[in-house]
Amino acid sequence: MPESCFYYMSCGGYSALYLGGSHPRLEDGVVTREIYGSRYHQCSYYRSEPIQVKACPGDYYVYKFTRPTLSIPLPVYCAVLLTTPSVDPCYNYTSLDEPWRATDYFVYNNNYMCDYNVEWNGWYRMFYNGQNTQMPESCVNNGMCGTYYPLSLNGTHPQLEDGVVTRQVCFSVGGCCDYRSHPIRVKACPGNYYVYEFVKPIVCGAYCAVPEASNQSTPSVSTTTETIPHIEFITPPITTTAPPVDPCYNYTALDDLWRRTNNQHSSQIMCDYWVSWNGWYRLYIQGQSVQMPDTCVDMLSCGTHAPLWLMRGHPTVEDGVVTRDVCGHWMNNCCYFQSNPIKVKACPGGYYVYEFVRPSACSLAYCADARNINITSTTVMPETSTTTETTAETTLPAPEIFYPFGSAAGDTINAAVDDGSSSVIQLLSPFLFFGRTYQQIYVNNNGHLTFNQPSSSYVPYSFPARGSQDIIAGLWTNLDNSVRGVVSYHQYTSGNVLTRATRDINTHFPNLTFTASWVFVATWDKVSYFNLTNTETSFQVVLISGGNFSFLLMNYGDIAVTGHPVQAGYDTVNSTHYFVIPESINGSFISNLRNSSNVNVLGRWVFRVDGEPRNSILNIAYSNISSDPCYNYESLDRPWRANNESLSLH
Known about the structure:
Elements: E1 15-19, E2 30-39, E3 42-56, E4 60-64, E5 75-77, E6 94-97, E7 124-128, E8 131-132, E9 149-153, E10 164-167, E11 169-171, E12 179-180, E13 184-189, E14 193-197, E15 205-207, E16 252-254, E17 281-285, E18 288-289, E19 306-310, E20 321-330, E21 333-347, E22 351-355, E23 364-366, E24 378-382, E25 387-391, E26 412-413, E27 425-433, E28 436-444, E29 448-450, E30 471-476, E31 479-480, E32 486-492, H1 496-508, E33 518-529, E34 532-546, E35 549-556, E36 567-571, E37 578-580, E38 596-597, E39 604-608, E40 621-622
Protein name: NIDO domain-containing protein
Pfam family, one: NIDO
Domain NIDO: 474-612
């Protein structure tokens, strides 16, 4: 929900309802927030019933909506996109250089320009005759900027350290800035310029540009005007001093088992002084995302003499990129070695990236905190230039929720081919999936099932994709069974598996009387991620049918974290039905799938998929919290709630 005023007749209704305060943080739990609605130019003219809000792991919010106050005319709750740019908009924008946008450009003969008709898409940087400029921060008189309603910022521009911020946009009718358009996002960039995420305004107005930006605020001390050729799209030069891509999405995975904090008194001592560090890094241990320790580490840990740890704690997401001192423990002095500082950034998804540099001496090495993770029994044999691992793996039994699989169950095994699929599998019984009946299926090595054709795609669609095929995603991501793990399948029409399926469905759906006549089990057993060959991920997709009923079970065992895009759930043609398992779209959290459920059986998700009635989340068990609204909610996806859906004031 928006946290600032939205103009009336926005969001598909008359009175646009917005949050009267900021969203909570994770540690705040459930909070109560006031709700306001605007009328004409008065932002908080209406006051609706308060609602409860909670911040959830995975960077989203849930709201306990109530019926708005009856005296408010046509009230609707508004929605704004909650996205973080995957590419820094300071280096990925469109140039906007139209002289008529100048605040001193007066319109004659009523030949007004109108940004309402522009298809805005992405971020923009403003120029005036090739010179860098910016939006005005105070009201502009009617008729200027080539339009009748000139649009300006209702406040100052952000500073560099503020990152991406939201700013109100206003225009004048009878007074100064007495009406408001939709808010926009703004960012201050290295090099003394700003970028703006423009959206369709509420009126037939136009965004203004100051001809000379020296009288406005700038993101740093210098006010030098920058002359840049007019081009349609800017890409960063290789020599740029600021990261052209957010390091949260542009890092090197550092997965050296010897770096773990519990690797003590190693027979061979490692030293990061000789490493050619370049760019940003994210720490892993056996494919599990970890961080640097930010408390003192015992000497002779992390495969080195003086283990390096982070001083002054890790930053928060809102802190952006920070600089932290690094200490090495030696001679019973936690900071005997004061190594070179490094840059650190907290990323959405609960992980950190580090810009490692050469330490101040040998033998010092950066540590990876091994607390709260599971480590395969491994003997590590480090060498000076390369690291070789001799692994004595402990074979873990499959979770009890798994149906029989593997050679012992008579499974058919997929070829060990990266991005491969099974051949077409003719089903022994038709399977009804939300109104469409299928008699064939494909088991794709990258963790998903398709019906009409095989799929080699290792980057999952974002559900709802509103596409042209039905997809079941047990864990759709970049898996690689050519190196490790087995993908197999088996279908049953009699025997103990049908008895078990009958019992499971009647347990999970106690209001039904069901007898299974067919079961299809697809299993991904200890399959590694692409380029992370020491990871193991295990899960099952089970299809069950009988009579006019069809069901889908997803069973999760040990799931390694990953930096690859991931998706778990299902999607149908045109997304008439779809579901995304909470947190399954974030590779840093997917190890929690084994502790999540919608049927109070940890690691299991169950859905009725014949089409009637439409699925709903039952009582979700997640880490012993069965009523947490972060995992017990209904999706509200109506395009007309968007802040750019409005009635024009033409």
